[in-house]
Amino acid sequence: MDKMKAVGLTRYLPIEDPKSLVDVVVEKPKATGHDILVKVAAISVNPVDTKVRAPKDKVEEVPKILGWDVAGIIEDAGPECSLFRPGDEVFYAGSIARQGGNSEYHLVDERIVGRKPASLNFAEAAALPLTSITAWEALFTRMSISQDPGANEGKVLLIIGAAGGVGSIATQLAKQAGLTVIGTASRPETVSWVKSMGADYTINHHDPLLPQLQAIGFPNVPYIFCLNALEKHWTGISEAVSPQGVVCAIDDPASPLDLKLLKQKSVTFVWEFMFTRSLYETDDMIEQHLLLNHIADAVDHQKLKTTLAEVLGPISAENVRQAHKLIESNRTIGKVVLEGFV
């Protein structure tokens, strides 16, 4: 039986513990059905990795492999595949219900895979899939924002936590759609990054939102996309959102939210979870294939840019643990990527 290198876990431990993520050798999978087998060239690390790895009283008999951002080359394809063939370069986030991509080879359903942007290298491409799907689905599917710039003239989007991976892509997509974008950032380096992504204004998420919005001429905003600390910002969001506005969130609140704060304004609140389609194998899961191809086209036509901020080195347990530490610090800018196996 063929084997492959991977980074995995059998126990859920604090990231400071060297056994929290370890180098392992596991069986190399085979492509069947709609699956393609990808030779992994680069991976990126996201907050979902740290949430799945978070300490809990559970032991895995087979090493669990994390990693939901991959760029690589197809080595084999199942008999039901029609979108790709061996040799194609691809990028994708995968399914949280299956083993992740922190391995030499990875199985993924072709219907949630896109062609890698031709103008990017593998590291630059690996920074994009999960955040691009999240931002795209949040803005255009969940919040029902038009992609037509003419329809969005004078409309404003507030992105809370704009310097991270999702915020960086959401800012670019929103600007393409003709929205005025206000991004929150609290440090000089994050303010600079958010502006480099195209934000029209920045405000500080550590201070009350509404007075800052009013100071730059916005008494309220019709769209708010909250990317972290939802419970902390909930009252401020309810104050800042326009009557009949839309609020979208992606993080898990630490305490219950009082939805009544939105009632008087008839505000719509909606979640975005980019794994929904793959987790439930929805009838429209191929939309993520189409979405990623659209992202690739936008990148190749210089309408979008990668949000890669740092390449930590090759894919190893030591380097993946370092990436998890960076994510858990809540101070990352853009995306952290690892490339190749030693």
Automatic annotation (TrEMBL):
Its main location: cytoplasm. SUPFAM superfamilies: GroES-like, NAD(P)-binding Rossmann-fold domains. InterPro entries: ADH-like_N, ADH_Zn_typ-1, ER, GroES-like_sf, NAD(P)-bd_dom_sf, Quin_OxRdtase/zeta-crystal_CS, Zinc-ADH_QOR/CCCR. Transmembrane segments: none annotated. The keyword Membrane does not apply. GO terms for molecular function: oxidoreductase activity; RNA binding; zinc ion binding. GO terms for cellular component: cytoplasm. It is found in: Cytoplasm. SMART domains: PKS_ER. Keywords: Cytoplasm, Metal-binding, NADP, Oxidoreductase, RNA-binding, Zinc. Residues 16-338 form the Enoyl reductase (ER) domain. The keyword Cytoplasm applies. Homotetramer. Belongs to the zinc-containing alcohol dehydrogenase family. Quinone oxidoreductase subfamily. NCBIfam families: adh_fam_1. This is Zinc-type alcohol dehydrogenase-like protein.
